[in-house]
Amino acid sequence: MSAQRRRSGRGEPLVLLHGVGLDHTLWDDLAPLLEPDFDVLRYDLLGHGAAPALRGKADIQDFIAQLDQELDDAGWGGASVLGYSMGGLIAGAYAAARPRRVNRLVLLSTVFRRTDDETAAVRARLEAAATQDTQAAAKVSLARWFTPAFQARRPERVAQVERRLLENDRDSFLAAYALFANGDSILAQAAPDIACPVLVMTGEHDVGSNPRMTRELARALPKACARVAPEQRHMLPVEEPASVAAAIRSFFQAHCTQGQGAPAQTHT
To answer: Which domains does the chain have, with CATH numbers?
Structure first.
C-alpha cells in the first residue's frame, strides 16, 4: 500500500471515504473495529493527503473516476461504500452512477437539502477559509466538529486532526471545500437512482449535517434507515467508533445482499 491508501482486515469489501481537509487517517479509530468482518480500503481523496492535487474547480466526476480506479486496483468488481461528510456526497453520487458496483451504502454526517440559512453559513465558512489565518480557521473547525468532553479527554487525537488541517495544500483544500459548500444538488439528483440499501447516520448536535438532513435524506432514498447518535457532533468516526461500527454491522446483517431492504424508516 502507498502512503495515500491502506487496506486491512478480512471479509467483504468496504471502502471508506473521508471528508474535506482530512485524509485516510481519519479512520484510524474505526477501521480496526471493522477489520474482523470487512476487507477495509481507505484512501486519500483527490486534493488531500498524498493524493494528486486539485487544480481549478473540483468536479464530482473526478472523484467518481478515482473510486472506479481504486476498486479496479483492489481487484473488486464492487464493494460497499461508507462516505463521511464530503465523502458522503461522493459515495452517494457513485452509487447512483455505478449501481452495479455498490452493494450497500453508509452516509455518515452527510449534508442534504440545506436551508437558506445553512447554505449561507457554509458559504461564510468557505469565505473565511479563503481569507483567514489557517490556524484560526482550523481551531474554528475543531470546535464545531468535536464535543468539549472529547477535546478534554483526547487532546492528542484532536491535535492529530488539527495537524492534518494545517498541512493541507491550500488551493486543493479550497477547491474541495467549494464543491462541498455548493454541492447540495449532488445528492438531491442522485437520491432517486440509489437502489442499494442505505444507512444514514449523524450526531444529535452536528450543526453542519444535522438530524433533520439525515431523516430527510433517508426518506428521499428508496431503501434507507436513519440513525442519530445522542450527544455527538460531527466527528462520529473518531469520537464514537464503537457505536458507528455496531450500527454498520447491524445494518449489514439486515441487508445481506444487494437489492434487499426495508422502506425508509427512522431510528434515533
So the answer is: 5-267 (3.40.50.1820)
pLDDT tens digit sequence for 181-212: 999 899 999 999 999 999 999 999 999 999 99
- Could you tell me if 107 and 88 are in contact, meaning their C-beta atoms sit under 8 angstroms apart? yes
B/e letters for 153-170, b = 16+ CB within 10 Å, e = fewer, are eeeebbeebbebbeebbe
Who contacts 72 (Cβ-Cβ below 8 Å, separation ≥6)?
A: none
**Distances, alpha carbon 30 to alpha carbons 25, 57, 119, 127, in Å:** 10, 31, 30, 32
**% helix, strand, coil for the chain, step of 5:** 50, 15, 35
Q: How many CB atoms lie within 10 A of CB 58?
A: 23
Q: What are phi and psi of 132, to 5 degrees?
A: -75, 160
Which helix (H) or strand (E) is 139 found in, with range?
helix 134-145
pLDDT tens, residue by residue, 128-167: 888 888 999 999 999 999 999 999 999 999 999 999 999 9
